[in-house]
Amino acid sequence: MKDRGYLLTEQANANSGNLDRLSPLALVDLFVREDSHTVAAIAEARESLADAINITSEALCQGGRLFYVGAGTSGRLGVLDAVECPPTFCTPPEMVQGILAGGEAALVRSSEDLEDRYEDGAAAIYERKVGGRDVVAGITAGGTTPYVLGALQAAQQAGASTIFMTCVPAEQASSPADIDIRLLVGPEIVAGSTRLKAGTVTKMALNILSTGVMVRLGKVYGNRMVDVAATNEKLRDRALRILMDLTDLDRSQAGELLASSNNSVKLALLRHWKGISLQTAQTLLQQHRGHLRQALQAENKT
């Protein structure tokens, strides 16, 4: 069994040596101070995050897919980010996928022993027929998870672009990927508990990555979620408010426009602003790969 005590994520935090003697308020204050490191870590990784957004958006624009691969907390965070893309950005479920060691059962029950199976990570990539248009992001706080490393190697052999997201420096775990994202938040308040700062900074990085990609794919107009899937009362209300905020329509009029536009905020806005038919709006959006702003600018020139 390899000693991993050298990893930054496994080391003891000098600031929390008396954790078990702190009052609840002092404990909260300690968390506040320590969690401030997450924002600084994101700032340090800004260039690699931007590179990840670029290659991923280009791949998805060409019909590729994004796979998050991880075990334990890291894997669950990848699954969480993936499943939130369809309702937020109206993406097909296969566009962004989370691969978790142990599968769905590991979402609700700990199965950390499965992370040691290098061959299972590779098998997960083969099963999904990953290819040259795809992107595989391996998420491993300590940088040594065999399941993730197996998946990344298999992805590279298949010609996919790869991303390595970890919370240890390069000298402790070298990058096996095209893009290397280091989120260095330091030792945890509870030594080795990477569901804390490491988990928080990973969630932040995934938020930035997926949102940045979706913005590049035209899923956002200004800062509005114009590809929202109006599948429940909350999301339908959001769609109506977007239409009302960006036009002179009242709620009733916005509802009628949305209903006659296949419940698509993009189509509704394009039709309203340009006075065009649903079919014309659909064609125009398709010509511009779903980018509302580009479709509007093109229509302005005609």
Describe this structure in words.
The protein has 302 residues and is of the alpha/beta class. The chain has helices at 24-44, 46-61, 72-83, 85-89, 105-108, 118-127, 146-157, 197-216, 233-246, 251-259, 265-274, 278-287, 292-300, and strands at 66-70, 96-100, 135-139, 161-166, 179-182. Strand 3 (135-139), helix 7 and strand 4 form a beta-alpha-beta unit. Helix 1 (24-44) packs across helix 8, helix 9 packs across helix 10 (251-259) and helix 11 (265-274) crosses helix 12 (278-287). The mean pLDDT is 93.
Relevant terms:
302 residues, Rossmann fold, Helicase, Ruva Protein, domain 3, 2 domains, alpha/beta
List the helices and strands and how they pair.
Elements (H helix, E strand, L loop, with lengths): L23 H21 L1 H16 L4 E5 L1 H12 L1 H5 L6 E5 L4 H4 L9 H10 L7 E5 L6 H12 L3 E6 L12 E4 L14 H20 L16 H14 L4 H9 L5 H10 L3 H10 L4 H9 L2
Parallel strand pairs: 1-2, 1-3, 3-4, 4-5
Helix pairs in contact: 1-8, 2-8, 3-8, 6-7, 9-10, 11-12, 11-13
